Please model this.
Amino acid sequence: MNDDMTPAAGGSPENGAPAAEPEHHHKGFSSKLGFVLAAAGSAVGLGNLWRFPYLAAKYGGGVFLLCYILLAVTFGFCLLVLEIAIGRKTGKGAISAFAALNKKAKWFGFIVIIVPIIIVPYYCVIGGWVVRYIVAFVAGDSMLLGESATLETSAEFFSAFTASPWQPIVFFLIFAIATVLVVIGGVQKGIERISKILMPLLAVLAVFLMIYVLCQDGAIEGVKDLFIPDFSEFTYETLLAALGQLFYSMSLAMGIMITYGSYMKKDAKISGAARQISICDTAFAIVAATIIIPSIYAFSPDPQSAVASSGPSLMFVQLPAVFNNLPGGRWIGALFFVLVFFAALTSSISLVETIVAILRENCHLKRWVACAIVFGFSLLLGSLSSLGFGPLSMVQIGGKGILDMFDWVSNSVIMPLVAIGTCIIAGFFSDVGSIMDEVGMKSKAFRTYFLIMIRFVGPLCMAAILISGIFMTL
Model:
C-alpha cells in the first residue's frame, strides 16, 4: 500500500498481508446470504420502480434494456466488486477506507460521505409519500378510487398532499423513524434481520403483481415495447441513460457497498456475492417495468405519453389512475405501494448505516447516538425538501425546487465524481494487486480485464455521465 499519491504497480502487494479486522467486524453480517440480501436491498429501491420504467419507455424499450444489461455485466459488475473489496480489505467505512488505501486519499472519503448525507433526507420524504398512498388505497380515497376518480383527480390528490404544510412532514417522519429504528438494531439484529424478511416479501409481491398485470387485456403490447429491441431507436442518449440508471440503481459511489463490504466475512466470495446482487437488482428492475409498462398499456387512454412520465408523475399520478381501472384495483394499488415501501426502506437503511458507520468509527459514538445525529440533520434537510412543494415552493435554485436540487447535485454531480475518484485512487494510487487478491482473482486474463475497466472504462463512462448531466441542465 502506497503512502504517497504516486502510481502503484498492479502486481503483488508490497504489504500483502490482509488488513487486521476492525473492532466492529465481528458484528458484521452473520452469513453470505445476509450480506447479499442486505446489499441487494440497498440496490433495489425507488430507482428500480419508477426511474427504470420511464427511462426504458423514453429510450426505446428493448434497446434500452439490452444496453443496461450489457453495461451491468461489464463495468457495472467491476465497480461493484471494487467497492465491496475496498470495504472488506480495509474493514472500514468510506473515510478510513480511502485513507487505508493511500494516506493522502483520506480527504476523498469526506466527499464520498456527502452523497448519503444529501440523499437520506429527501429519500425519506419520497418514502413518506409512499406511506401516504398506502393509507389512501387502504382507506379507499375517492380522489384515487371509484367512478368519480380520474387522472385529473389523481393529479389533484398528489398536488394537494405535497402542497400541504404538515401532511408530507408527518409521513416523512413515519418513514424516517422506521428507517432509524432498524439501523439502531445493528447490523445483524437490525439490517440483516429485516433484509431477510423484506427481500423475500418483495420478490413474492413483485411476481404476484407482474402475473396479475400480464393477465389483463392489452398488456401484451407493453411487454412487446419493453422486450423487443428496435435498433433504429438507439442513440448516444440511450447508452448514456442506461449508464446513469446502472450507476443509480446499483448503489455505487455512495459509500454503501464499501460499508457493507467491511461487514462481510472473509470466507465469503466477493465476486459471487457481487454477481448475485447484480442479478437481484437487474431482475427486480425488469419485473418492476413488467408491472408498470404493461399495466399502463392495458388501461391508459394514451399509454405512450403516460409511460414516459417521469418520477412522481408516473408513480403518484399515472399509476393510481391505472389501478382504479384494474379489477380489485384498490387492493392491487395498496399492494404495489407496500412493495414500493419495502424497496425504499431497504435502500434508506443502507444510506443511514453508511453515515452511522462513519460517525461511530471516526467519532467513537454509540450506535444510538450516531442514529440520533443522522435523524436530526435528516429532519432539518428533509423538512426543507418536504415543504419545497408547498410553503417553500418559491425557493428555486437554478430553476429547480429544493428536492430536485438535492437530487441533481447528488446524482448528477457528486456521485459521478465519487465513481471517477474511486476508480483512479484504487486503480493508480493504491496497491491494486492486493485489492484483486482480496477478491480472489487468480486468472491473469480477468485481472487484466478488471484493471482496464477500473482504470480506463469506468472513469470515462462516469465522466460522460457527469459532463452530460451538467450540460443538460444549462
